[in-house]
Write a structure and sequence with these properties.
Fusion Protein Consisting Of Minor Coat Protein, Glycine Rich Linker, Tola, And A His Tag, Chain: A, Domain 2, alpha+beta, about 20% helix, 3-stranded antiparallel sheet
Amino acid sequence: MPTAPAGRPGAPNRRRRPRRRSAPTIPPPRRTATATPATSIGSYPEDAISRRRGGVAKVDVTLDAGGRVKSASLAAGSGTLSLDREALAMLRRAQPLPAPPPERLVAGQIRIVLPIHFDLNQAG
């Protein structure tokens, strides 16, 4: 016959499962007064529109504590040279980006890969 724990009469004797640790989450970027909306800094290259090209360019970018781009290079191309060039140019025009969380900085900077989506359905 199961026995109740000493501190709680009538309570079932169940073993507590260890709590699952959730994956670490990155807090959302902080918006700053100098952050520029992507819609005003991006443009869809005309040649990509005329050739009906879309895709995702992945940009490897290093930001400093103030959100300024220290370096940017293409980590994976979209398959269209003009879209890849526009992804890099858009990052430079968008500076400064929202400042990264201080706890995520290593030696005063953070390195991330940003996917930049080019969708013909949203082209101007």
